[in-house]
Amino acid sequence: MVAASLTGMVWTGTGWAEPAWVQIEARPTLDQAQERARDWSTILPAVSGFAMSTGWYAIALGPYADEAEADSQLRVLRGERMIPPDSYVSNGSRFREQFWPTGAAPAPVAEPAAPVAVEPAPVESPAAEAPAAETPAPVETLAESRRLEAALSAATRMEIQSALQWQGFYSSTIDGAFGRGTRASIGAWQQANGYEATGVLASAQQAQLLGAVAAERAALGLTAIDEPEAGIAIELPMGLIEFDHYDAPFVHYRAKDGSGVTVLLISQQGDQNSLFGLYDAMQTLEIVPMVGERKRERASFLLTGQNERIHSYTQVGLSGGLIKGFTLVYPADQADRMARVLEAMKASFRPKGKKALDATLGKPLAVERSALMAGLDQRHPEFARSGFFIAADGAVLTAAAGLQACGRITVEDHLADLAYADEALGLAVLRPQKPLAPAAVAAFQPAEPRPGGELAVAGFSYPEALSAPVLSFGTLSDVSGLSGEASRARLAVRTLAGDAGGPVLDTTGAVVGMLLPAEATPDKLLPEDLAQALRSFDIVARLTENGYAPTASEPSGSIAAEDIAALAQDMTVRVACWK
Which of 221, 224, 393, 500 is the most buried (most CB within 10 A)? Predict the structure, then answer.
């Protein structure tokens, strides 16, 4: 129907009154413009191309009888998303030679009606009359630029501010008011483009600015998207991405034509706990590199990440029981270009209605450590082990082996610093970068344990599968190590690698040691239930020497196994090493 209405347009009125066009884009070179005109001609009829007075090349639809008719077609085509959203009506005043269709005669341009010609009386001339010299195009004065600027509509003024913002020269409110900030931005743009920084755009400069931004936006395919299933409105670079699938709480957009750009729209029902769970879970994803800003507030969070391969940005907010946001991921070498896309997405993002993505469209998010987020690769640590709280501010004791080589250490997904390490003894103290509030702090047994006594090791035996520590029960075999080390004890208990660094508890719930990582013995086959622990006496002595104040346990009788399990749950934490 749109095509028929375009092809059926004819000029009306007397003569060539006031023709108008719908300009859909502009290109800086003739070759580019001819290629784009050819592409548009396969989609829409009545495509024309003109050289412009600005030095650029316009691609337009028309001509139409007048601006009203052109505006009507503009609205129809925009509504059908058949032309870029920044297309506009042009009166053709800047159009010059026509280059498309190939071989077309120049399109008529409205001019004042010519007076009736009266043939003058012949005048004899001794010589043939010389051809008139060409009149150079007048140069627009600053006063004329000010006068033309004053006549601009509010919409055009806002468009100029948006264009300046797009190119990184303007960062204030888009309000159409040309105050000091806008003037300074115009001056900076003029200077960057080789013009005198007057703070007032000449007509040609305005056309250059708007044309360049229109061309860039068209190349990116920035399109206003209304995602009804997620209840989100946002501008997305559809020239770089395409819809892939729903997988609650995400709407996935994959890279298009090898662009390397991906987008997630985030939409789910939930409360603050759900929001915080999503915050923790997303930090484990490959698309969120570890280096970057992390900010979590009561009803929102921000995640950025950068590495040598990709950059990513995630913003999420909670309002009215709905969690909504987006993630943009793009190649690191496109940071400058994609910064403009990100600003457009941030400025246009808007939650809509009271609907969140239906979990039946995909798998609902599980924030437990054991569950992967559907369709997304999870980042895994180099190794994960156990530790336990030794102070009310969240200081954690763990095994020292391998921690010096970690690029990043986390305690229960919170960043931590390696505060102290004794490689010879095998212990280390971690301090979370933000203070934690432990439910329980280890109390060390001051009395000498006796061989044969029952004990339990608390640790994350399965750190990638279970979000809680496991208790492994056994006995104390000896109060010295395999080579007779006085600081170690031998245990008869089956443990796994993830248990290393965890507390060894006696039947009263007091800590009698810390489990050490198994030593590599390729030429020896040791019993499966053999383990070694650092004795509490040596732990307490070394911590005290270095300014820590370990808590001593109070004398008490044995407690039930379920009470030991509850105590272990409160004090034992997961420690992860990331490269």
Answer: 500
